[in-house]
Amino acid sequence: MFTQSNAMEAKATSSLVDSCVRKLASKNLHERLTARNKLEQIGEAAVPPLIRALKNENEIVRWEAAKALGEIADPSAAEALVQTLTDESFDVRWVAADSLVALGDAGVPALLEALVRGPASVVLRRKAHHIFHSLSSEPMPKEVKDVLKALERIEPGVHVPVAAHTALEFLRSRKRDIHIKEPNTN
Q1: Is-contact 115 147, C-beta < 8 A?
Q2: Where do the domains of the chain lie, and which CATH numbers do they carry?
Q3: How far is Cα 182 from Cα 186, in angstroms, rounded to an integer?
């Protein structure tokens, strides 16, 4: 039951999140770090404003937002982090890639979709290679491993979209199979 107390708490959290996101632009490193740590502690409630901050004109704000999203590791940030892989700033792209690694399997579908849509982007392919290579020590379906192999081929722009599409379809079918399975009645 949503009470007036819950509404007041949500408003206070929202106000704190907004204040912390604004402080991500501070020139004072300690103030930025404190704000980012608070956002990470808040967790899920901070994710939507942090996703918006990934589009901020200030490179430091984008970097801090990507870093915080990696620490929070909420799968709902995957698509925004994938979009950030083509940021104009190398540092922001690097942190976004590391944040996607922190998401693990939860970030893979959004990355595969981007590779299907935008394989011509050399920057996207390089970051995708870094992410898949970093995740390769984890158990990974063969179809996803094939994307890493395609990224390493001579003409990845040709091979990556096909491999990414195949892997995406495999993951979607596996997800459907999981939802379709009947509960064990024994």
Answers
A1: yes
A2: 1-72 (1.25.10), 76-186 (no CATH)
A3: 12
The residues near 85 (Cβ < 8 Å, ≥ 6 apart) are: 93, 96, 97, 100, 114, 123, 124, 127, 128
Contact 99, 81 (CB under 8 A): yes
CA atoms within 13 A on the CB side of 11: 7
Q: What is the mean pLDDT of each run of 10 residues along the chain (186 residues)?
A: 61 83 96 96 95 97 98 96 96 97 94 87 92 88 92 89 94 68 43
Q: Quick check: helix, strand or coil at residue 160?
A: helix
Spatial distance between the Cα atoms of 101 and 91, rounded to a whole number of angstroms: 15
Q: Select from 172, 167, 183 the least CA-distant residue to 132.
A: 167
How many angstroms separate the CA atoms of 33 and 9, rounded?
Answer: 24
The answer to whether residues 113 and 148 touch, using CB atoms and an 8 Å cutoff, is no
